[in-house]
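Schema walkthrough. Field components (list of strings):
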Amino acid sequence: MPRRRRRDLLEQRRFLAPALIAPAVVFVGLLVGAPLILSVYLSLTNATAGSLTGGFVGFDNYTSQWSDPNFRTAFRNTIVFTLVANAIVVLGASVLAHFLIREFRGRWLMRFLVLLPWAAPVALSTIGFLWIFDSLFSVVNWTLKELSLVDRFNPPQWLGEPNKALAAITTVHAWRLLPFATVIMIAGLASIPKEVNDAAKVDGATGLKKLWFVTLPLQLPIATIAVLFGIVFTATDMAVVYILTRGGPFNSTQMLPMWAFQTGIQGGSLGEGAAVALFLLPVLAIVTVLMLLFARRVEVT
Amino acid sequence: MPLRRRDNMLTWLVVGPFAIVLAFPFYWMLQTSLKSELDLYNTENNPFAFGEGSPTLDNYRFLFSDTQYAHWLLNTVLVGLAVVAITLAVSLPAGYALARLSGRWGQTLGVGLFLVYLVPPTLLFLPLSRVVAEVGLQDRLAALILVYPGFTIPFATWLLMGFFKSIPRELEDAAVVDGASRLRTLVWIVFPISLPGILTVVIFTFSLCVNEFIYAIAFITSSDSKVVSTGIYTELIRGDVFYWGALMAATLIPAVPLALLYNTFLDRFIAGFTGGAFR
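Field assembly_structure (string):
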């Protein structure tokens, strides 16, 4: 009786678990593993937009990109704005989480307002910022002008000057990541056992002392996870740059994902584009491993 | 426990400014979307007030009657629902198995999945764009439906694993003792109890799809198959012609319902997220 036998097999734990997990592994292998390998292969060829194969060129794509000034700018920008945005996010989220976890009046409304940037699709809210930073009708400039903080006839061009444009992009990223990091930090705070707080009280630890010696160390592992997500999300995001500046003016706000897109899709040099994107991989891999190890070590001690 | 009056005040003093900064762009979208052209593009006007011809719903009318916005919304929902269906079909069993049935192997695979979720579309869109073209899916929604599970499955499996871990084992063991098979127990006992968790996964998976940008812009160029995250930007901004009022209306419409859902399911999301392999 084949039917009967199949059931018996499924009853066995050794067989059931792999059968349940297999589809997920296959999907992930086909949609993430395979393209990743393909990406590495492409980066070693001179493939163009028309085909999936090309002549083998070794590390030429990597070396030619490394000496490309636009790539250099993109690489530097990606690192700088990822670090700055995440520093802002961590500071803001720690404070915000500490207060949002309390059961104060109006908590639902406050949480709703704070969550908005995370819930809204990033490409759409960035269009909102495009309008906020508009060259003629910027509400930021209007306010600054009313307060006489900037020259009425020569207001700052938030997206038209290199440094200001970088600051604008960083702001949008920090703004968008803050709610997510806050949520993760709230989770961290909520998971601190009640006994720990009680014990701290008995030992006379209150206020800042408690925060420094009890709450912060316990919050560290989950905060690390929040930062890990933040770094990966900012370093690899293309929507914000694409919509705000497209890497301009004169490639001064170029980021690696944007540059990979322009080289590989718009410029048609698939191989070079893949090489640009892959520059991120070792950096992200190292960051991920370090942070996970750190989170685990802190958790154990 | 509820706070004393003074602590309430302090909390508002700290949280309030954050809330204002974080929510301001949405307030601004709303204000802009209700303005007439005349009012909007007059630099003499106070932008925080309504001027000539405002407030008006003209921008919303324009959006739905003169652009393909409604069509993009529909496309987005279609893609989202299809991806959610595929994701659930694959992630429900996997999440359960990882939470229950597979000991140390489960731990390793769980962390592996978490890492896969961190592999960004930025690294994958170039080869995938070729694959999509090769199999003739360029410019079709099917391309997105095919590719999105690559990030939704790791994410959903991770969350589900967290939820399933919180269900008491005894419940299932009792059913098995009563003669039900493991699979039956899964479908008739475990999944129904986990419904709130599953709903959370549905919402967050759906919103990941709405959020996605790189694949949508790399694979789809015909305006018929666009989704909201790319359609608005590529079609409603033409050269120097901006329809700012309509643009702001278009960005606000998907954001509000999503935010309401997020707020409602936030606590469950937190429970699932931290219930995963971190403990």
